[in-house]
Amino acid sequence: MGIPYRVVIGDDHEHARKAMRMIIESDPAFKIIGEATNGQEAIQLTERFSPDFILMDINMPILNGLQATRIIKERFPHVKIVIVTVSDDAADLFEALKKGAQGYLLKNLNPQVWLEYLHSLITDEVPMPREIAHRILNEFNQISGSAKNNTLTPREQEILALVAKGWSNKEIATHLIISEHTVKNHLKNIMQKLHLSNRVQLTRYAYEQGWV
Fold first, then answer.
1. Is the overall model pTM greater than 0.70, yes or no?
2. Burial bucket for residue 199 (CB in 10 Å: 0-12, 13-18, 19+)
3. Which CATH architecture group holds 5-122?
4. Which ranges of the chain would DSSP assign to H, the alpha helix?
5. CATH 3.30.365.10, domain 142-208, yes or no
6. Which among 7, 111, 118, 147 counts the fewest CB atoms within 10 Å?
7. What is the CA angle 92-99-138, rounded to 5?
8. How far apart are CA 185 and CA 96, in angstroms?
């Protein structure tokens, strides 16, 4: 096994940090290197340790998780940030994505789902959770699709729409009767054309363009 991925936990509630610590420590692929009780501490720990992941609560004192996410992503764009909250409000997800977060986890999800989600983030193949995708669909449908980007081929637009619906590479490949390798190549080309770097950003783009 390789070097474990280094994780910082940011939450102002001790019991919440303890719960996240138990989940993360159960998987040898991850190692907790610091805990923050507010957004400012999360920034300081990032400056000091340069973690691979940050699990960031939204509602924290001094600087909230969204403010801290924006600052960290500006200074350390390589750090992956996953917003962790009890809220499944679509507005919170939108704000997290706009600030640069790579993912979004609800605190009441099964611990195994957490770990599978984080492992998927490592390879940048994590699909948007379907329950969240469904919640944001109506709100994104209010956004005009008039500014569609014509640089994508019809097949690329089709794959991008499926990504935005929360489909995995395997599900897309089965649905379109192509190989997973072909799906990955399409996604690579899409991200290069749109100057985007992960599936979360692709999901947001697809909804904004009205392709879903």
1. no
2. buried
3. 3-Layer(aba) Sandwich (3.40)
4. 14-25, 39-49, 65-75, 90-98, 111-122, 130-140, 154-164, 169-176, 180-194, 199-208
5. no
6. 147
7. 40
8. 27
